[in-house]
Structures are given as structure tokens and as C-alpha cells.
């Protein structure tokens, strides 16, 4: 083989090898491109999915916020109406003092409150006033207004004391009107003479004690149609 043939063969082999290299490079580039496209598609789907989830989460957040705000507005409305009802109820005490309530005069209402409180004090003290006697000395405390209006008289207290003594298992109950005064719209405080036990039967405290049942009743009547 002459030099010309050798050169020609080398060129042919070089061209062939170059073609193979180019073909391999193109195939590799094609694979890389396809991998890149696949990665881009995955990223695109992930992005869309993330945006969709964000959209769902945002909608859910807005719904939760709207529901919370609605509950807050409903609660504020209920609280406002309940407060107004309780406020109006306290204002009615002035009328009760003048006109009574359901056929009972205010004096009779106070008598019931005194008796109820006195019996609770006796029960709390074990039914005795001192260690040496079976007497129970109790003081009745009123507001300035109720004391000045003489809604409670000594005769009334004696009658109540006798009623309690009859059913108190031998305890002799004595009730007297205290010189102390309370700040209250109405009602009484009954206190043991030793001042260890007292029962607050003012209207404010009774409403506070019965607040849960009062609120349930108010809500039931105010919002039963909603």
C-alpha cells in the first residue's frame, strides 16, 4: 500500500470516527435534553400542585376566618343583648319596691331572702350559735335605701326567727337589724354574730350565682328563632 492509499485510509477512518463521535454526542445531547424536559415537567407539575395547594389552603383559611368572625359577631350580639336584659332587670327593682312582684310586696320578698340566708348560715355553722347554747344570733344587713324605707321591721324579723326556730331542730334563732349597710340595689346579707359566716342574698349576688342558668334562659328566649 502506497503512501497515498495510507493517507486516504487514515482520512476515511478519521471521518468515520468523527461521525461516530458526533452521532454519540448528538445522542447524549438528546438524552440530556429529554432528561431536562422531564425535570422541567416534574418541576412544572410540582409548582402547579404547590400553587393549587396554596390556593386551597388560602380558601380554607379565608373560610375559617369568616366562620370565626361570624361566631365572634354572634357572640358579641348575644353578649350585648344579654347585658341589656340583665341591666333592664336590675332597673325593674325600683318598680318592684313600689309595686311588688307577682302579688308579693317587696317586704315579703326581703322576708323570703332573709329566711333563706338565715337557714344557710345556721346550716353552715352546724346549727349552734355558741359552744354553750343552742341560740343562733344573726344580723340582717340592708342597703341605706331599704333600711330608710323600713321594708324590714323588728316584728318581721321576730316572725321569721320563730318560723326558722320551729324547724331548726331545737335551735333558738334571733334576728336583728344591723347598723352596718351594704351598697346594693336590693336584697340582704345575713351574718352570724361572730361574723365567721355570712350569706349574701343581694340581687346582684343572686344574679351572679344563677348567671349560667339565667344566660341559658335569656339565650333560649332571645335566639330561639335563629
Structural account:
By secondary structure, this protein is an alpha+beta fold. The protein folds into two domains: 1-99; 104-214, hypothetical protein PF0899 fold (2-Layer Sandwich). It has helices at 3-99, 106-124, 144-148, 154-166, 203-209, 211-223, and strands at 135-143, 172-182, 187-192, 198-202. A hairpin with a 5-residue loop joins strand 3 and strand 4. The radius of gyration is 46 Å and the shape is rod-shaped.
SSE blueprint:
Layout: H1 3-99, H2 106-124, E1 135-143, H3 144-148, H4 154-166, E2 172-182, E3 187-192, E4 198-202, H5 203-209, H6 211-223
Parallel strand pairs: 1-2
Antiparallel strand pairs: 1-3, 3-4
What are its keywords?
4 strands, 226 residues, hypothetical protein PF0899 fold, 4-stranded mixed β-sheet, alpha+beta, 2 domains, single chain
Q: Rounded to an integer, what's the Rg over CA atoms?
A: 46 Å
Query: First CA to last CA: what distance?
Result: 110 Å
Number of DSSP strands?
Answer: 4
* CATH second-level architecture of the largest domain: 2-Layer Sandwich
Largest sheet: 4 strands, mixed
Query: In the CATH hierarchy, what is the class of the largest domain?
Result: Alpha Beta
The secondary structure category is: alpha+beta
User: What is the domain total for the residues?
Assistant: 2
Proportion of beta-strand residues: 5-15%
